[in-house]
């Protein structure tokens, strides 16, 4: 298949470059990258190294240092260089560092990147040189890398812009215990002083991200079962079940369960744990929303939630848009959408206009021209956590005339960022580099957000009571727009082409 080429370097008579597999959004390539060398004289390409993470050529072009797996290797930069491999030993390698000098360099490097890459050269009207001089004296008080991040953050915040992230650096946060979660909820039976399973998340075990351990074949766990012991250690009502699940994530976990709070007649089940139940909670929420919409509309209206504008958002859109494409209407939910960069792809699909139809003798449904046209009305839901490309999507949904926006004003950050490489100690920053404007030539959304057409708040009490007022209003609005039929036209009668 097609490959991606990158990392081009030149030396006398030769070109060096990396070749890697095509990029699949949200997935790794199907094989590692390789380093190639091309002879301009012979017009031939040779593989210099496999399993390459990166490389750097020496100043004179004679040698190339290649990162391969966990090691670094030195090669001759020639077509026969693959036979010259020499491992560069790193055992005992040390670096003489002066933290204060390093922090000073990082501060100046961050300032320079903003000077060179910020999306407008006027720096939002601020004197960027003066701001550097204002904050630089604080470096003498920096005693830890986190202090430096604070100083840098304060300097950047003067520009009043979103996506101005400051991350990491040379300090470590203690690793959290890996808890062997079952994809369930426990509740305490105070009378028996025992825990029992109150809920098992349904999951979708054909997708690993939605795997629910207690629903897998052979586990035999049921809602209402008492959990009497975890890996042989008795669980009482005075204890916390999650304490007994700490550091259990890497091996099967055994639960002693019974339908009554006694060991007599108990059985032992085993499950493969997960470390995060967030995806199961999310799936449970969207399945409930889809059911609510279907029940309230007699199955006439579809529902899609798009969690972000990245790999997860594409996956959920493809999974749920096309199976519902012949619904009469559609609710598109981008609440809590974390952003990304694929909103334009989704808008392009949602705004396709029906131009014609294709009918066959053996199919009841027509094929639309172009493919995948949704012909019914739509509404979109947004809230204060619809962010970044999750801001842009509802704005363009309205701009495209797809339907009204319902909910609360969005986050308000749409200046795009790029990766300009790590800082000297492995930390990172993002520079807002790409502003968003409308067709009138006006900057939009950044610093304000996108207003809904119909403002509806999900106040805390309603949420705790199990109500979703924004979704309910979306259902009401979409049903009001279903006064006119939205079905595709009936198949025409067969033409008669006999000559009279």
In words, what does this structure look like?
By secondary structure, the protein is of the alpha+beta class. It folds into 4 domains: 3-87; 99-167, Transcription Regulator spoIIAA (2-Layer Sandwich); 184-274, Pdz3 Domain (Roll); 297-413 and 449-480, 2-enoyl-CoA Hydratase, Chain A, domain 1, CATH 3.90.226. It contains 10 helices and 24 strands. It has helices at residues 99-117, 128-135, 145-157, 241-244, 278-296, 311-321, 343-350, 389-399, 460-464, 469-480, and strands at 3-11, 14-21, 33-39, 44-57, 63-68, 71-76, 86-87, 166-167, 184-189, 194-200, 226-230, 233-234, 253-258, 267-271, 301-305, 329-333, 356-358, 367-369, 378-382, 405-407, 416-418, 428-429, 431-434, 454-455. It has a 7-stranded antiparallel β-sheet with strand order 1-2-3-4-5-6-7, with no helix packed on it. A hairpin with an 8-residue loop joins strand 17 and strand 18 (367-369). Helix 1 (99-117) runs parallel beside helix 3 (145-157) and helix 7 (343-350) packs parallel to helix 8 (389-399). The longest helix has 19 residues, at 99-117. It is globular and about 75 Å long. It starts with a strand and ends in a 20-residue tail after the last helix. The model has no long low-confidence stretch (mean pLDDT 95).
